[in-house]
Amino acid sequence: MAYLFDTDxxxxxxxxxxxxxxxxxxxxxxxxxxxCSAVTVGELFKDAYRSPAKKRHLRNITxxxxxxxxxxxxxxxxxxxxxxxxxxxxxxxxxxxxxxxxIAAIVQHPTDCLRD
Length: 116
Known about the structure:
The chain is built from six helices and three strands. The chain has helices at 7-14, 20-26, 38-50, 54-68, 76-91, 98-108, and strands at 3-5, 34-37, 70-72.
């Protein structure tokens, strides 16, 4: 089973004292089954640039996160899925944050990106 980690899941690993149980569980997941999205990476960079410890956070992202996870891209096909999801949820009265919908669209791409 593959896992797409969000910002909170990645941030836990970068804490000074990450939860031991979480690290133990994470260690059971094969490297080729661990993913993050380009949207999540953007959120991590945003938080790093706002931090007083900017250099340390930027180093953690580039040396730990990006080396440990496969980053899934946000491209035109993904953008189409995002638009459809966003419009559908807005029309049903249950909108979600754009970043969450972008991540959901990445999960659905590429097999659904050409669907009409």
